[in-house]
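Input (Large ribosomal subunit protein bL28):
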Amino acid sequence: MSRRCELTGKKANNAYSVSHSHRRNKRLQYANLQVKRVWWPSGNRWVKLKLSTKAIKSLETKGIEAMAKEAGINLNHY
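Output:
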């Protein structure tokens, strides 16, 4: 599985780690992903998704139906 949020599409960002002497090495800044079980009311069941913490916060206000429609995913496959 990829390290990507299933609802928002967040993924790793390219960056540099900079030392005290300002030597730079390339590294990745990963998204804060959590595996979360979310209740899907219209499907009347739990859905297990890999979500970023930002998506979990947005889920509380928008709802799973709206966010899934926005992301273009079918919740029947999860």
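The chain is about 25% helix and 35% strand.
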